[in-house]
Amino acid sequence: MSPANRGLIGLGVGLAAAGAATAAGIAAGRVSKERHARLSVLAPAGAYAHTPDRELVVVADDGVPLHVEIDEPEPSAAAGPGEPADKPTVVFSHGFCLSLESWVLQRKALVRNGYRVVTWDQRGHGRSGRGSEASCDIDQLGRDLSRVIEETTPSGQLVLIGHSMGGMTMMALAGEHPELVRDRVVATAFVATSAGGAQLVSLGFGQYFGKLVGRFGPGVLDRLSARPGLVRTALRAGRDIEEFLVERWSFASPVPPAAVRLTGDMIFGTPLDVMADFLPTFDRHDKRHALVHFHGVEVLVLNGVHDVLTPPDHSEEIVRLVPGAEHVVIEEAGHIIMLEHPEVLNEQFEALIDRGMRAAAEGVKVARKPRVRRTVTDLAKRRKVARARRGEGRA
Questions:
Q1: What is the domain-level CATH number for residue 75?
Q2: Which of 108, 187, 329, 347 is the most buried (most CB within 10 A)?
Q3: Cβ neighbours of residue 319 closer than 8 Å, sequence gap 6 or more
Q4: Is 132 within 8 Å of 163 (Cβ atoms)?
């Protein structure tokens, strides 16, 4: 494509963004007052704050430093009657344009219930190093996860949980290290992710426009990253606009403003050129062949009904290719389910781990289980939101 045509596309994107920003600003103004005045009671002060027991740097095989945090189980959460004394370590991998902070509510819950938890920032995200453009690749992320496990949990049972790009990372790990999954992993959760073979970079705009985003998006983001002043000017249009856009692509039900702020900080804290470097790997992503290595492992697939980035049909291939996998679809949920419906995810993860530990201890043939698909409605959250909207002082 000629530079002139690229310029026209860039101009069109800019004009569209300006129009969207104007419309978003109007809509944001309408919702902001209600959210800040009432929905703040959905999250108590400090709900998203967390101090890990240990922080460390794990060096990837190409020299990139990866930020890792470890939470040790609370001493009071000793194993109860009939529970194994040594519970598995839970390793969380976050999604594209997020960070390990996205798992804050899950790691707190698991630590309270006696689990050791490992979280890490994928390269180019959060506090991890960046690496080269060529290293922004799902296979490299799988190797990074392998190094994290090697350094933090060289032995013992594991539970792997990944959201979006994090789930793809786990598939890449299994493809290169099938023995690790076979010998040590007792349970796995794939949250809002895809095994590939589908148009991934659509951003909720549909297949045709999604292809344009996948083709031209990296170039647009690269040019924007070279003009940080322009980006800052756009963001100065107001935080309400930013938060409105975050809610549009992240959530499908009311959430406290602190959750929107946390999500926005993670997304807009990801460098634009890192976003550009990663976009091509999603269109190349196809790890369906790696799913065979999860046969015999307790597998849970989780989706939000209204996820515009990776809707439930993107995950159905995982369920089809892994015998015994369970598929749970959450009503009124978008892409960032772990912050939108944390209690539901915490319950699902606890049940998954219990099933996995029991299957491992009793030699249960997981692959012989019938496939299960369930739709879950977060009734407890509905009640909280209703009370908040009535102006009651408690969530």
A1: 3.40.50.1820
A2: 187
A3: 301, 325, 326, 327, 371, 373
A4: no
The two tokens of residue 208 are: 């045709």
Please name the amino acid found at residue 187. Answer: A
| Residue 11 forms part of a structural domain | no
Both tokens of 236, joined, read 């100065």
Structural domain contains residue 1: no
H or E element at residue 312: helix 312-321
Q: Residue 97 corresponds to which tokens in the numbers above?
A: 């344009």
Q: Whole-model pTM?
A: 0.84
- How many domains are contained in the chain? 1
Higher pLDDT, residue 147 or 31? 147
Look at residue 395 and tell me if it is in a domain.
no
- Largest Cα separation within the chain, whole Å, is 71
Could you give phi then psi for residue 269, rounded to 5 degrees?
-85, -10
Query: Mind listing the pLDDT tens digit for each residue in 312-328?
Result: 998 999 999 999 999 99
pLDDT, mean over the chain: 82
Predicted pLDDT of residue 225: 46
Strands lying side by side in the sheet with 54-59: 54-59, 65-71, 116-120, 89-93, 158-163, 185-191, 298-304, 326-330, 372-376
Q: What digits encode the pLDDT tens for the residues 148-182?
A: 999 999 999 999 999 999 999 999 999 999 999 99
Domain around 244: 17-389
